[in-house]
Specification:
2 copies of one chain form a homodimer. Chain A is of the alpha/beta class. Chain A is 42% helix and 17% strand. Chain A contains 12 helices and 14 strands. Chain A has a 6-stranded parallel sheet, sandwiched between helices. The first copy, chain A, has a 6-stranded mixed sheet with strand order 9-8-10-11-12-14, with helices on both faces. Chain A is elongated and about 90 Å long. The N terminus of chain A is likely disordered. At the A-B interface, strand 1, helix 4, strand 2, helix 5 and strand 4 of A face strand 1, helix 4, strand 2, helix 5 and strand 4 of B. Strand 1 of chain A pairs antiparallel with strand 2 of chain B. Chain B binds a DNA duplex through helix 2 and helix 4.
Chain lengths: 345, 345
DNA sequence: TTAATATAAGAAAGCGCTTACATTTCATCT
DNA sequence: AGATGAAATGTAAGCGCTTTCTTATATTAA
């Protein structure tokens, strides 16, 4: 039920017929050279290209799509972020995506679900006949059934799946967290707490597991009261850190599952009159650029978000072009960036 | 010269003919009810809608566009940002845009110019026959001639133009800077320096003017060596601030033309062993969320970026729909957010 | 040289819609 | 009841491309 109130663009663009007339060939030939398809004699190819230049002709994509029933745009489905990290993540991901999508001459369609039942939202997307494939960041959501019942190719970013058919590109959250905690252990810390992220989000869960594993492997018992329930928000981290500082046994180091939370934690520590890393060593996750603006500069686990975006775009395009079979799975590795927020003990 | 390697979506979607047959009416009638256009008897309207539901029919947008030569998608042209503010600005703007564009059932096409001559880039956009209008953030660039010679509606964001036909939505940079400096004057400061932004960008220029004007109006002479040439980058601001602190006459307050630069300035001050606001009062511009994470929390000028995005989207849609005549010009006001980085003197 | 084959070019039939125009239906007024 | 005009519906001609099929031309083989 779309209102019929759209604007009409002046119908003065040259069409393929004009080019054909100008080059004195048939429109079929013009189409062949436009699409670099079939065989055209060099002489005619040149004439057509000249005509195209002369008339400044650009093919009408709607017509092309209608006639060919082919499709090449990439859709990007994102949740509605509202925090600092969301904005960082989004822009970084976009950098990778755009660096692949635009040089490949694809269109990038942004798709936000604003107040629509999820099924309807995806059905609508599927019926946009010009979208060839999707890149999805789902946060805490599952892959929608409408999607996996369809035959549109999609790759999910920032999550892993055991289902064979689901393509994803993720990041080694577990290993990253493991490395961070191992680093703290290496500095001599034994009382290492964590403020973890939302556990309904995969990355939150995996980072917690990495933390536990690293402690176990170091022969350090995992203490229940050293595990603080966070949700990736700064404010929560502030509260949890404050709580941690009031407990009988105060940790000497804390692994915080995101930089944004590390910010809150650091503030809580300072507000208590304590020092980072003097009293408490801190490691974050993400490598948000603000990390190096804090004092002390935050030691953190960098995740290659841009790279993830780039790879996601490359993959979805290959899937659209059928150059790749579904089932593409990749986990990119993280890197511990050592700065000034941890000390030997 | 597009390679012919796109994927074909299974051609099993029901068409308008199927609906017409199912509802036992003509395709014209179906089209009328789809577009809510012309007159259709209630009885038939219902039958068509039932048939649409039953078959799960969705119109083929490419066909619709080709036939009607009408168009409703919104294109968003952005520069390639690489700094923190860019990412903040981009996400904030997007928030406003998406909150308008998606409920209005328009598509949002992201357009980045990656290594393409500007003219070609815009010509390509214009020939995307499904883009009805554009929102542009141009940074230091001018409106491209290809664009203003065309008849596509567009609104420029974050800049002002005297040309009558150019639609823009901007922010009162001058007044914002003026208010900030006036505030410093009110606190008793007389030696007020500024680190300004890139002067080839309007906002940079206007903020500098606001600074000068505020001083003049307060009867304070504008001192040449209190005006430091910045470019919105943190690093430059760090250097300029350091320089400022080494000069004979050290200011008691500095108006820094962006929060990102304020970050650099603050660091420079601390690195010199001085205190904010103890020795130097600081005011920023933007109200980047990190402002309230700094210590001291940064006093700054908030600009309504999301609101700008929202208005830009509303405007471009009204222009597409011809509900608005070209020449829409609006400047949104800023707001001084007083936090802890300034003191009385 | 001619036959056989490969290559190049064109003609024309759609793709799934919109819409101008023609036609039918229906309510209203003499 | 017949005339009249408005409302409802249908018919059919495109929109600008792609692509199949056909035909013409060039190349090679015999």
């Amino acid at each position: 039920m779309v209102k019929n109130n759209m604007k009409t663009r002046k119908g003065k663009f040259p069409s393929i017929d004009d080019v054909a007339r100008e080059a004195d060939v048939s429109i079929a030939t013009v189409s062949r050279v436009i699409n670099n398809f079939g065989s055209v004699k060099e002489r005619n190819k040149l004439r057509v290209m000249d005509a195209i230049d002369k008339l400044n002709f650009k093919p009408n994509i709607s017509a092309s799509r209608l006639a060919s029933n082919k499709v090449n745009s990439v859709g990007l489905v994102m949740p509605v972020y509202d925090d600092m990290f969301g904005s960082f993540f989004f822009t970084e991901l976009m950098k990778g995506i755009r660096d692949v999508v635009f040089p490949a001459r694809r269109d990038l369609i942004l798709l936000y679900n604003i107040n629509e039942p999820e099924d309807d939202f995806y059905r609508r997307i599927l019926n946009k006949t010009y979208i060839g494939g999707l890149i999805l960041e789902l946060g805490a959501l599952e892959v929608n059934p409408v999607l996996w019942k369809s035959d549109i190719p999609y790759v999910v970013v920032n999550a892993t799946y055991t289902e064979q058919r689901i393509n994803y590109i993720s990041v080694s959250n577990r290993a990253g967290a493991y490395e961070a905690v191992k680093y703290l252990v290496g500095l001599g810390h034994r009382k290492i707490a964590t403020i973890h992220g939302a556990l309904n989000i995969q990355s939150g869960n995996e980072r917690l597991e990495g933390y536990k594993q690293a402690l176990s492997d170091a022969g350090i018992p995992v203490q229940r009261d050293f595990i603080m329930d966070g949700n990736f928000y700064r404010k929560t981290a502030y509260e949890k850190m404050s709580r941690l500082l009031e407990s009988k046994e105060i940790p000497t180091a804390v692994f915080v599952a995101s930089d944004e939370m590390a910010l809150g934690a650091m503030k809580a520590i300072k507000d208590k009159g304590l020092d980072v890393p003097g009293n408490i060593s801190l490691v974050g996750f993400d490598d948000n650029p603000m990390c190096s603006e804090l004092s002390p500069k935050l030691t953190t686990v960098r995740q290659p978000i841009t790279e993830m975006g780039r790879l996601a775009a490359e993959t979805v395009i290959r899937l659209i072009d059928k150059e790749e079979k579904p089932g593409f799975k990749k986990t990119l590795s993280t890197e511990l960036i050592i700065r000034d927020s941890c000390r030997k003990i």
